[in-house]
């Protein structure tokens, strides 16, 4: 019995820490977004968002959450005889609404960044990857629809490993790497990859901006 419990605890511990870290990041991002704190950028850095493809869906969920709070409050108040139930349901509804707004805020204030020395690939607060231009062989614009809704997906294409960091099950830019490179990714770990695919709302603008970096001549469409 002890042998069975130990591996389970070993898995639960890191998962709980990751959940707590993401929760704290969500509240921090919500605070920064509400305060309209500008994104700190180095000279020459240019941000590129990835929110447009999921903005309508997030808007619908946020709208539904706003409508559900008074409806559930009315139902619980008139149906459930236990007084504290109303406040528990109300607290959960408000938390759910703030969580959705926090997700929107996190995607807004954590864009991809094209800099003088490399490309910063981000997704919410959970993914933040820095790739120097010297490690990039080419950037190519290509829209892809992925079969899964997972944010991070790894595929084996022949002898090449490809990681896709998708938004709304889509990617729009392929980053071809000069040599296998490891990235620390949630649920995937650190494994050598030959290519990274990401989604950006303005892939053309990102490629144009990348051409002004020291990687000029190796970056192409």
Could you please describe the fold and organization of this structure?
This protein is of the alpha+beta class and 221 residues long. The protein has helices at residues 2-34, 55-79, 83-109, 203-210; strands at 46-48, 112-114, 118-123, 127-132, 136-145, 152-157, 160-165, 170-185, 189-198. α2 packs antiparallel against α3 (83-109). The chain is elongated and about 65 Å long. The model is unreliable at 216-221 (pLDDT under 50).
Brief summary:
This protein has 4 helices and 9 strands. The protein has 221 residues and is an alpha+beta fold.
Secondary structure blueprint with pairings:
Blueprint: H1 2-34, E1 46-48, H2 55-79, H3 83-109, E2 112-114, E3 118-123, E4 127-132, E5 136-145, E6 152-157, E7 160-165, E8 170-185, E9 189-198, H4 203-210
Parallel strand pairs: 7-9
Antiparallel strand pairs: 1-2, 2-3, 3-4, 5-8, 6-7, 8-9
Helix pairs in contact: 1-3, 2-3
Q: How many DSSP-defined strands? A: 9
Number of helices: 4
Q: What percent of residues adopt helix (DSSP H or I)?
A: 40-55%
**Order of strands across the widest beta sheet?**
5-8-9-7-6
Low-confidence stretches: 216-221
Spell out the helices and strands N to C. HEHHEEEEEEEEH
Largest sheet: 5 strands, mixed
Q: Structural class of the helix and strand makeup?
A: alpha+beta
Strand share of the residues? 25-35%
Give the mean pLDDT: 85
Radius of gyration: 21 Å
Shape: elongated
- Gap from first CA to last CA: 57 Å
């Amino acid at each position: 019995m002890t042998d069975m419990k130990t591996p389970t605890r070993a898995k639960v511990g890191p998962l709980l820490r990751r959940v707590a870290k993401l929760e704290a990041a969500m509240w921090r991002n919500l605070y920064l977004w509400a305060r309209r704190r500008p994104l700190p950028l180095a000279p020459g850095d240019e941000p590129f968002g990835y929110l447009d493809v999921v903005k309508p869906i997030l808007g619908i969920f946020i709208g539904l959450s706003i409508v559900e709070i008074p409806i559930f409050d009315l139902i619980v108040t008139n149906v459930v005889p236990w007084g504290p139930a109303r406040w528990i349901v109300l607290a959960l509804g408000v938390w759910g609404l703030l969580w959705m707004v926090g997700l929107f805020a996190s995607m807004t204030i954590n864009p991809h960044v094209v800099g003088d020395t490399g490309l910063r690939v981000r997704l919410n607060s959970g993914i933040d990857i820095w790739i120097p231009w010297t490690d990039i062989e080419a950037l190519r614009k290509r829209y892809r629809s992925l079969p899964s809704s997972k944010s991070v997906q790894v595929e084996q294409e022949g002898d090449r490993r490809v990681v896709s960091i998708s938004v709304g099950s889509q990617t729009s830019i392929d980053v071809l790497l000069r040599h296998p490179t490891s990235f620390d990714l949630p649920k995937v770990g650190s494994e050598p990859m030959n290519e990274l695919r990401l989604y950006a709302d303005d892939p053309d603008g990102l490629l144009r901006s990348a051409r002004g970096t020291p990687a000029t001549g190796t970056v192409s469409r």
